[in-house]
Amino acid sequence: MNDIMRPATEWELKSMMMALAERGISVEILGAGSKRGVGRPVMAPVALTTGAMRGISLYEPAELVMSARAGTPLSQIEVELASRGQMLPFEPIDLGPALGTDAGLQTIGAVFAANLSGSRRISGGAARDYLLGVRAVNGHGEIFKSGGRVMKNVTGYDVARGLAGSWGTLAVLSEVTFKVLPLPDDVLTLVYPDLTDDLAVELMSLAMTQPYEVSGTVHLSPTLVKRLKHKGLAKETRSLTALRLENFTRSITYRKQKLRDVLSAYGAPLELELESSLEFWSEVRRLSFFPANGTHLWRISTTPSMAASLVSSVRRHMKVEPFYDWSGGLIWLETPASADAGSADIRRAVATHGGHATLIRADEAVRRTVEVFQPLGPAVDRITRGIKHAFDPMRLLNPGRMYATM
Amino acid sequence: MSSIELPLPNQDIVARRSEIVRDLTEICGADAVIFDEDGRRAFETDALTAYRRMPLAVVLPSSTEAVSEVLRYAKANGIRVVPRGAGTSLCGGALPLEDAIVIGVSKMNRVLEIDFHNRFARVEAGITNLAISGAVAPEGFFYAPDPSSQLACTLAGNLAMNSGGAHCLKYGVTTNNVLGVKMVTMDGEIVEIGGAHLDAEGYDLLALIVGSEGQFGIITEATVRILRAAEGARPMMIGFESSAKAGICVARIIGSGIIPVAIEFMDRPAIEVCEAFAKAGYPTNVDALLIIEVEGSEQEIADRLAYIASIAHELNPLALVVSGSEEQSAKIWKGRKSAFGAIGRISDYYCMDGTIPLAHLPHVLDQIAEICRTYGLRVANIFHAGDGNLHPLVMYDANKPGETEKAEAAGAEILKLCVSVGGCLTGEHGVGIEKRDLMRAQFTDDDMAVQLRIKSVFDPDWLLNFGKVFPLDVIEAAMARTARSADQVDPAEAA
User: Is residue B1 part of a domain?
Assistant: First the structure.
């Protein structure tokens, strides 16, 4: 990588993109670069970072809306929101520790470009659900906007949301506008020890069918539990299944008891009070129990009732450490180092159980040889190519990052 | 009303009508094709009734495969297609064209699968919105988006327009509640996107398809998220002497950290009409009324309503009434949800659907009043205050020459006003034909070019729902560009 371009304004970004487009030069798109190791290796002679386009351009707490330039560090946004008692409801996951970089580096643009959602996704929705509007520059070098700053907007096609999860392959975001929500008054976590994966998924799904607004359901294997740094759980060596309640204290007290009653067949849970809960969920959010230790890490989306069976069918072929989020609807799976990262077995298991898998952590040589993102069926593949062509006909933006020939 | 220009029909296609009807009958069977004049007349308009066009033919297929065959036929013959759900669009989204086949999905209305454990329902897209909730209600679940037309409107139409409703402040709109779709493209290809799991793989095609106003394909099945309903819910009503105070009240409630399930606003004309219709017990001595609903257990509801009341009391409300029973709650909501119908009983009206940042509410309401005064028209305002979605109902007399044009002109000024304060043309009804020519108020040519290129991916010949969403000249220019670039490179080859 010879050269990193750093536009400071949207206009500079446009000029740079036009210059690249004129000469047909492809470019790797970066925020802070903390997720550079996700995806197939990008073969581009230059890189461009949005890191110099930063700053919160609009914040109306009473309207639950914020706009920020794409390169604004997420940490800055969360500090600003917290100062007004608000938060990003989708609780973006921080891949830094798992990818061997520091936590807290990523930009807000990258959060949406990767559609990164954390545990609250199961109750509150994904990053893309909170994305209200974008400004961006496409591979034609055109500045465009979509959506806006209001909560409800169906004017024209929903291009803004369509860019979520496109990993910088369709356009370079210059500004994002998103919905925020109040921080909960209080948090309490019920932790059920020693459940098998099957029982844990059953428990978590049952909790989600109750009217108590459980806002996080996770299950960690015993090995992952041992890696937790959480002070109150330091001595735990059993699997742990955690359910989170976030609300006013009086509500939590009431709902906790209701839940304990409904779930009494699964044993007596530990209770983590506010501070202890925050510590636990912050660790979950940073995936701190998946340190970059030479193993591979997969992210698998499926229906909860398929989760345990999917993991055990992969387990027949290799040693795996699963972390179940979203009641089992999201599986983070650590697999041993191997030339294909276990790709063949994992893709087969996903094909039979439904859903999709993304290889999050693997070295460059592996990412060059196996599909990192879920291979697409023929019809969706054709549409996907068309969309790529519509935004970036010369394949200048992050070429090959998601799919080899796109 | 006639000031919106509709595309001229292709006379060659119109001339082939009987041959086309015969072919459609062969494809779908006689009972699925409506071709006689009386039968077709039932489909000549939607809920924007001022515009009518007799469709070439109407097809009501019973299966995805039949939709696929009809689209394949239409594509091969260069015939335009207008998709239709229940025809409740307020923006002319389902308005037929004289040279187009209307494909209605209303016969495809079955529930295919309900999975409470994984919290989804898979349904045929012609099912009504309310029927989805009805199917899961016995287990205490519901489907969240709740447009006022939910008794009649189909999920297919909701998906096309990304419909909202009064309760989307907490639960989101259609796009936030859909996990997957089965869609037939204009080529007749059946595509499955997403599924029962969260977040589909690859690009977020669902985001693009939901809200594309039937211009990307015809959705025949969908997998939607179902949610466990709260233990209970109860609305309260708070009346103020001014909309400014009501706006401040809403801002303070949200700023305090409480997100009610719904915050609805009505101005004095709306209150009076709705009260006369529903006898809901609305206070009639106020200029602005808020209906605020919260959820939870009895105790939680009481706590939250008390908290909201304490915020309201600082602003000296003229009325503050908590619903005392299920019956009263139902009446309060009935009054609000039947607002359009209630106003329709006393006058023709033109319903606008802009969204504005909440802080601009008093200014925007003053300006709306001023605009309507200038045109000599009355207006009532309904507002989803929690999310800024404003429904001014401009009243006019369709029998008075020139008055409908006045109402349209006033409506256009109101929508431009919404855009000028940082809002948008439409929050939940869609663009359709109605707001098509106002798109330039919100979007630059480049903004629209980006959207039009996506349309070309799905339907480069513009056969699906032609003449809507974008100004006609913009559509025509885009078609010319697509034709030119198709001459130069085939996108599939280039990719």
Answer: no
* Residue written as token pair 């930009």: A107
CB contact at 8 A, B158 and B125: no
Q: Show residues of chain B in contact with A304, CB under 8 Å.
A: 117-118
CB contact under 8 A, B191 and A380: yes
pLDDT of amino acid B491: 47
Task: Output the pLDDT for position B487.
Answer: 67
Give one word for B74, left, alpha or beta, with left for phi > 0 and alpha for psi -120 to 50.
alpha
Tokens of B43: 């489909």
Q: What is the pLDDT of residues A27-63, one digit of tens each?
A: 999 999 999 999 999 999 999 999 999 999 999 999 9
Please give the pLDDT value at position B495. Answer: 39
B203 with B268, same domain: the answer is no
Report ipTM for this prediction: 0.97
Q: Rounded to an integer, what distance in angstroms lies between the CA atom of residue A99 and that of residue B192?
A: 33
**A152 and B469 in contact by Cβ < 8 A?**
no
A130 touches chain B (CB under 8 A): no
Q: Please tell me the predicted confidence (pLDDT) of residue B1.
A: 44
Q: Please check whether residue B2 lies inside any domain of the structure.
A: no
Does A146 sit within 8 Å of B450, measured CB to CB?
yes
Domain end point (choices B77, B104, B131)? B104
Query: What is the pTM for the complete model shown?
Result: 0.96
Which of the residues in chain B have pLDDT under 70? 1-2, 487-495
The answer to whether residues B93 and B64 belong to one domain is: yes
* Backbone phi and psi for residue A340, each to the nearest 5 degrees, phi listed first: -115, 10
* B224 and B281 belong to one structural domain: no
pLDDT of residue B488: 61
Please, are residues B295 and B261 in contact by the beta-carbon 8 Å criterion?
A: yes
B70-84 pLDDT, tens per residue? 999 999 999 999 999
Which residues in B lie closer than 8 A to residue A329 (C-beta atoms)? 118, 197-198
CB pairs under 8 A between A and B: 271
DSSP characters over B429-449: S--TTTTGGGHHHH--HHHHH
- Structural domain of B89: 11-104
Residue from A152, A374, A381, A388 whose CB has the most chain B CBs within 10 Å, to mutate = A152
End-to-end CA distance of chain A: 21
Q: Cβ of A67 under 8 Å from any chain B Cβ?
A: no
List of chain B residues whose C-beta atoms are within 8 Å of the C-beta of residue A150:
355-357, 387-389, 422-424, 427
B483 domain residue, yes or no: yes
Same domain, B415 and B470: no
* B426-446 residue pLDDT tens: 999 999 999 999 999 999 999
CATH of the domain at B256: 3.30.70.3450
Among A159, A208, A329, select the one facing B450 at the smallest CB separation. A159
The rounded distance, in Å, linking the Cα atoms of B258 and A248 is 10
CATH number for position B99: 3.30.43.10
Q: Which domains does chain A carry?
A: 49-182 (3.30.465.10), 186-285 (3.30.70.2190), 296-378 (3.30.70)
Into how many domains does chain B fold? 5
- Mutation pick from A115, A155, A178 vs chain B, by most beta carbons of B within 10 Å, is A155
What pLDDT, on the 0 to 100 scale, is given for residue B494? 44
Out of B317, B339, B361, pick the residue that ends a domain: B339
Asked if the Cβ–Cβ distance from B429 to A211 is below 8 Å, we say no
Give the pLDDT confidence of A149-167 residue by residue, as tens digits.
999 999 999 999 999 999 9
β-partners of residue A324 are A219, A331
- Which of B191, B208, B426 is nearest residue A157 as measured by Cβ atoms? B208
CATH code at B421?
A: 3.30.70.2740
